[in-house]
Design goal:
Blueprint lengths: L11 H7 L9 H11 L12 H7 L4 H15 L3 H35 L3 E6 L2 E6 L8 E4 L8 E13 L1 H4 L5 E2 L17 E2 L4 E13 L5 H8 L9 H30 L4 H15 L4 H18 L2 E3 L3 H6 L4 E4 L11 E7 L2 E5 L10 E3 L2 E3 L6 H11 L4 E5 L2 E5 L2 H12 L4 H7 L2 E8 L4 E8 L2 E8 L1 H6 L1 E6 L2 E4 L2 H16 L3 E10 L13 E10 L4 H12 L3 E5 L4 H11 L6 E4 H6 L2 H7 L3 E5 L3 H13 L4 E5 L5 H6 L2 E5 L5 H6 L2 E3 L4 H46 L10 H11 L1 H7 L23 H27 L4 H22 L7 H4 L5 H19 L1 H7 L6 H12 L1 H25 L3
Main location: membrane
Subcellular location: Cell membrane
GO cellular component, one term: plasma membrane
């Protein structure tokens, strides 16, 4: 290969020869060889942190460093066992942090691979779709409207092709491309026969040969000069990081004060130093950032399995707040398998049997089947549907599929039922020009060479096609289209639309040989007929809409279809419940203020353009709603960016829409949006469960130690008596609390999570119910543990036994808390004890370790434990289990208060 060529200054054949390629593309074997030679078509990434370095990163924590100092001091003063135990706990905590970060990083890497874009290329002479990273120099790429260019390439064909190169050149207007020579000294923006990686086709189509991939592209050269920008944390991560620092600062202050009091009451300085460090470690939720990261990452992976790829982590947080879902109809609420049902030609209606993309069915008039013959109006209409068409019908492993637009695919299927196949027809009538579809013109026209000269074929919205026609093809002849016939065609189109059919008009025009191809081609055409097709609703979409209603999320349909068609589908889905239906024209007549007043009551928008979506998003946002908006086209990008959650279609969506979106549906299914909302709520709830549990545990530990030191003499504790030694505090925090807390961060969603109203925008984790539960759990734990400690001392059990009983009571309280904190409202007995298998395993594991500490002789001394009797276990269990009724009563009060506030909210105070 020759590098550094001025590809734009070479003829196409010279480029192909230099790259050792051809117009039929590379062979699969050659492409594989070049992939190994040139490497993946990717920009170089920053070198990943090795697992070993990731593990060492865990020791940068300020508290871990202090613990390491404590290990050294303990060993130097002869407390070898204490030093070993603290060292083991440090390794355990660091290993847990490493595991969390490693899993989070790998989860995100897997997600990036899943979200990799694709490219259409010619391999072995056939068009196939491959991951963009597998594109190699010499590949022939096929470019369509909305595609993101996968690599730098020299154009071989360019049909009305315009490329948005703003990301590369800064030029705001799309650049019209050509396939002819450009002078060698032309600047980057003037190389009109070149397309570049990362830019986007906004109009037309093209074919190009790849000249550079990866870091050898223009974008690659720029990337090589730029420093990598650090990925920003999500708002939730920022908020929790700030919370963690606040807790850490406060906890360190409290621990220093308590240690000082301990020294003043006669304890040794070293003992109080290690004790204070242990208490500080107990107070600070040091695993919080890792838990947030892994909760988000694993949640995103779960969403991916439910067909929702998350492109921005902040979207996960926002999903739980969603109040409005504005969704397309076609392919999202419906099956995206358009099927031609009815055709109008020669003044009569023809029914078409068969469903989906199987080319099997009949043409029936008045109950009698027939086969269309050449020259018939129906035959001409079917030919028009084939020629004015950019979609292909394919049989892959016995299954019929389409590549392209479902509406166009249904026309190919209908034609195939008559024995007309696209390959045969297009060979007879090759395309020589086209005027692509646009949302403004609402039609598409292609020009073909035939034995009788040039003919333009057009399809589109019936009213637009009719307006372009002054003649009609009927019973094999062309004649003038009368006003009566025009009115009748309009009535038929309306009747077909009333039956929830999507209706297209078909027309053609014979062209003079020297006619310039422009929009005058679409005037004075010959009307052929109407085609009515239907895309049946998805059954799962009906259930998803019901689920949205329960969850307080309103679903709104936004479609380009006729109002009557949209209403029929919306009613069938249960989406239209007496609200307003608005067309694009009616929307245009509303001022921004008028739309804002009505927008919450509008359930269906019909015959709208992508520009209307932006107005709807803005109006809903001004009313304080959190909006998810779906889209698939290039023009949908502004609305997708403006929405709180932009949702692009993974199958039918353009690369432009996907780039603008926060989330991509890999199955284009509305139910997947609802599943993502459920996952988003679950992730937020799990982070809340983790924090509730851990902070409540930390509050309890600090209070029991503070109470003993500050108020010991007042409650009759002996001088120097402390309920827990440093090793016990560290064990409870890093072992007993650690795994159950992590298990809560992956807790299955609350069964009633989609019956709750959306979380208000901006609402944090620390709501009144959450704070009340944290405080209640912490205070009750303090009262119970201090009571057990004092009871043991009063019963003459001795300091070590009293500390052991307090330690075990504290550990068991945390076990019971972990089940209670699986919800801040629902009863633990309603939720059940066995739904979270990871929590059950964590408790089983921690219980085994606790029994080892209690009954293994060489562990009893450092942990201040002894072999408990059955009666001792009875006391400990009875004391610990009291946390459940206390938290259950607190939850009952929270539920009661919520109902009262709901009544006040609806009807005022009573």
């Amino acid at each position: 290969m020759i590098s550094g060529q001025n590809w734009h200054a070479l003829e196409v054949e010279d480029v192909l020869q230099t790259l050792e390629s051809s117009r039929n593309g590379l062979s699969t074997a050659e492409a594989q060889k070049r992939l190994e030679s040139f490497g993946p078509n990717e920009l170089a990434e920053k070198k990943r942190v090795s697992p070993w370095m990731l593990f060492l990163e865990q020791f940068k924590s300020f508290l871990i460093i202090i613990l390491l100092i404590a290990v050294v001091l303990s060993a130097a003063l002869g407390e070898v066992v204490d030093a070993i135990i603290i060292g083991i706990i440090i390794l355990f905590a660091s290993g847990l942090g490493f595991f969390q970060e490693y899993k989070a990083e790998r989860a995100m890497e897997a997600l990036k691979r899943m979200a990799a874009p694709t490219a259409s290329v010619l391999r072995d002479g056939k068009e196939i779709e491959v991951p963009a990273r597998e594109v190699v120099p010499g590949d022939i790429v096929i470019i369509a409207t909305g595609d993101r260019i996968p690599a730098d390439a020299r154009l071989i064909e360019a049909v009305n092709l315009r490329i948005d190169e703003a990301s590369l050149t800064g030029e705001s207007a799309p650049v019209e491309k050509i396939n002819t020579l450009v002078e060698a000294k032309a600047d980057l923006g003037d190389r009109l026969n070149m397309v570049y990686m990362g830019t986007t086709a906004v109009y037309g189509r093209g074919v190009a040969v790849v000249t550079g991939t990866g870091m050898a592209t223009e974008f690659g050269r720029i990337a090589g000069m730029l420093q990598e920008v650090k990925q920003e944390a999500t708002p939730l991560q920022v908020n929790l990081d700030r919370t963690g620092k606040w807790i850490a600062t406060g906890a360190l202050f409290v621990c220093v004060v308590l240690a000082g009091f301990g020294v003043a009451r006669g304890h040794e300085i070293l003992e109080m130093f290690i004790w204070g460090v242990a208490l500080a470690v107990a107070a600070v939720p040091e695993a919080l950032p890792a838990v947030v990261a892994i909760s988000l990452a694993l949640g995103v992976r779960r969403m991916a399995k439910r067909h929702a790829l998350i492109r921005r982590l902040s979207a996960v947080e926002t999903l739980g707040c969603t109040t409005f879902i504005c969704t397309d109809k076609t392919g999202t609420l419906t099956q995206n398998k358009m099927t031609v049902r009815r055709i109008y030609t020669d003044g009569k209606l023809t029914d078409v049997t068969g469903t989906g993309y199987e080319p099997e069915g009949e043409f029936v008039v008045d109950g009698i089947a027939f086969v269309p013959k050449e020259g018939d109006s129906l035959y001409v209409l079917l030919n028009t549907g084939i020629l004015c068409n950019d979609t292909s019908l394919n049989n892959i492993d016995g299954a019929w599929t389409i590549k392209g637009d479902p509406t166009e695919g249904s026309l190919l299927v209908a034609a195939a039922k008559a024995g007309l196949w696209k390959k045969d027809v297009t060979e007879r009538f090759p395309r020589i020009g086209e005027i692509p579809f646009s949302s403004e013109r609402k039609r598409m026209t292609t020009i073909h060479r035939t034995g009788d000269g040039k003919i333009a074929y057009s399809k589109g919205a019936p009213e637009e096609i009719l307006n372009a026609c002054d003649c009609i093809y009927i019973e094999g002849q062309e004649r003038e289209l009368t006003a009566t016939e025009r009115a009748n065609i309009q009535a038929i189109a309306q009747a077909m639309a009333d039956d929830a059919l999507r209706v297209l008009g078909m027309a053609y025009k014979r062209l003079p040989g020297d006619l310039e191809i422009d929009q005058t081609v679409e005037q004075e055409m010959v009307f052929v007929g109407l085609v009515g097709m239907i895309d049946p609703p998805r059954e799962e979409a009906k259930e998803a809409i019901k689920l949205c209603d329960q969850a307080g999320v309103k679903t709104v349909m936004i479609t380009g279809d006729y109002k009557i068609t949209a209403v029929a589908i919306a009613r069938d889905l249960g989406l239209l419940k007496g609200g307003l239906v608005l067309t694009g024209a009616e929307l245009d007549r509303l001022s921004h203020e008028e739309l804002e007043k009505q927008v919450e009551n509008i359930e269906v928008y019909a015959r709208v353009s992508p520009a209307h979506k932006l107005r709807v998003v803005e109006a809903l946002t001004k009313r304080g709603h959190v909006v998810a908006m779906t889209g698939d086209g290039v023009n949908d990008a502004p609305a997708l960016k403006k929405a709180d959650i932009g949702v692009a279609m993974g199958i039918t969506g353009t690369d432009v829409a996907k780039e603008a979106a926060d989330m991509i549906l890999t199955d284009d299914n509305f139910a997947s949006i609802v599943a993502a909302v459920e996952e988003g709520r679950g992730i937020f709830d799990n982070i809340k469960k983790y924090l509730m549990y851990l902070l409540s545990a930390n509050v309890g530990e600090i209070l029991v130690m503070a109470g003993a030191i500050l108020f010991g003499p007042l409650i009759g504790l002996p001088a120097g008596a402390i309920p827990l030694v440093a090793i016990q505090i560290l064990w409870v925090n890093l072992a007993t609390d650690g795994l159950p807390a992590i298990a809560l961060s992956v807790d299955p969603p609350d069964p009633g999570i989609m019956t709750q109203k959306p979380r208000p925008r901006g609402q944090g984790i620390f709501t009144r119910p959450v704070v009340l539960l944290i405080a209640t759990g912490g205070i009750w734990s303090f009262l119970v543990n201090l009571s057990v400690f004092k009871w043991a001392l009063d019963a003459g059990r001795g300091m070590i036994e009293a500390q052991a009983l307090c330690f075990l009571t504290l550990a068991l309280i945390e076990f019971f808390k972990s089940y209670a904190f699986r919800s801040d409202k629902r009863s633990v007995f309603t939720l059940g004890f066995f739904r979270n298998k990871w929590l059950n395993l964590a408790i089983m594991w921690e219980t085994m370790l606790l029994l080892l500490i209690v009954y293994v002789p060489f562990l009893q001394q450092p942990f201040h434990t002894f072999s408990l009797s059955i009666s001792d276990w009875g006391v400990v269990l009875l004391a610990a289990v009291t946390i459940l009724p206390v938290l259950e009563v607190t939850k009952a009060l929270i539920r009661w208060r919520g109902k009262c506030e709901g009544v006040v909210g609806k009807g005022g105070a009573r």
